[in-house]
Specification:
Elements: H1 6-25, H2 39-58, E1 62-63, E2 69-71, H3 72-75, E3 97-99, H4 104-113, E4 119-128, E5 142-151, H5 158-173, E6 179-185, H6 186-196, H7 203-210, H8 218-228, H9 233-243, E7 246-247, H10 249-257, H11 268-287, E8 293-296, E9 309-315, E10 323-329, E11 344-349, H12 351-364, E12 375-379, H13 385-397, E13 402-403, H14 412-421, E14 426-430, H15 432-436, E15 440-444, E16 449-453, H16 458-471
Parallel strand pairs: 1-4, 6-8, 12-13, 12-14
Antiparallel strand pairs: 2-3, 4-5, 5-11, 6-9, 7-8, 9-10, 10-11, 14-15, 15-16
Helix pairs in contact: 2-5, 2-12, 5-11, 6-11, 7-8, 8-9, 10-11
Length: about 475
Amino acid sequence: GASANPKRGGQQGESKRKKKKNAKNIWLKCPKGTRDFGPLEMNIRDEVISTLREIFKRHGAVTIQTPVFELKKTLTGKYGEDSMLIFDLEDQGGEACSLRYDLTVPFARYVAMNAVDAMKRYHIGLVYRRDEPNVSKGRYREFYQCDFDIAGPYDPMIPEAECLNIMTECLNALPVGKYVIKLNHRKILDGMFAVCGVPEDKFRPICSAVDKLDKMSWEEVREEMVKEKGLAPEVADKLENLVKVNGNPKEVLKRLQNWEENGFNANEMVQAGLKDLELLFEYLEFYGALDYVSFDLSLARGLDYYTGAIYEAVLLEGGSLGSIAAGGRYDKLVGIFGAKDIPAVGLSIGIERIFALAEKAYKEKALAKPSATQVFVGSFDRDMFKQRVQYLKKFWDVGIPAETLMKATPKLQQQLKFCNAQKIPVAVILSHGDLEQGKIIVKTLHNSEQVETTPEEVVPFVQKILSNLNSEGGSS
């Protein structure tokens, strides 16, 4: 019989149904620290990647592909304190393997294995870290990296200047806003530690503490050095004045060349580093890239393999993202693999962070669209599938992305609804009557303008509209 309280009975049935449905889908999720990307995000990501690719190619770079997992021994011992974040795979019989942690070590392995003497290469690919994911900070376990490296014996500081110039070209071509590139030199850091009395076995740990000065106060960093890393307090105090030095490259350079306290400017390593940077600043002026640079003694990139200039691009507005590109010189990495040392310098673009900024920029301007389609071919009359396909092919043949509704006899209303939902900028609407009179209607969606053209002229006519739209930045 019917329930005395039909409403309540309905609710109970409802919650049972919900439970059943949820139980079925409970495991339908991405693994911790990973995520899916829909068409909208992927269209924006593709655009960012192709912008970067074009810049790298413009500078004569080639690309390579390496396996997404490497032998475990290829990766271990290359990442300092971060080695515990390497993702090991289960033994598949015989060889212990791990997912790659970055693209630099695989590149060094490739160079050593193939006896490469010189190469300018870029590589965009997924890397893996067994990190505690933090979505708000944009930290994931699977993410893209984008690297550009110049390996080979070239004249001092020319490859560095090229890398820094490419970094500015990449960041200027993408919607990231204002940024500054902090720059320092490993030899200056090591010399600074030596004259202040840091024991050599503490150079690297103290380095990674100094590197936190962009996120922590000097007091907090000093405490870490003294309490956690066991540095004598008076040594930490000697470091304080130096690590706080930053600003205009040429002015800071002068200050340091005349810095006599603790014999800083008499130290050989310091002198070598300053000499390198003096030359680099001169070259960066040729490229017009020096304006983006700040010489900053607190920059101490934590990785173990840098040997010369180091640099990191930081956003000046919209704070929480931190570094968006970084790199440096690493002359000893290839030699680790038993091959001869090949000098190399490179940079990594924080492509995931840039994806997030680009998504935000596109969505704010309402430019984001899920597909690359530029032209929709529709019809007033419902029996025109043949003609729609004929005109589609005309657009495809000249390389214009175009589509029609996948229905044989759709209503016009349905077609336009699809066109709007997909944010397709131009619609070409056919009808038997128009074609008999030698005309076709072309509609631009953003202002609902309708214009007539002829069947012969429709393709060049639409090309013109699209190129005007693109130059106004009206479509992605």
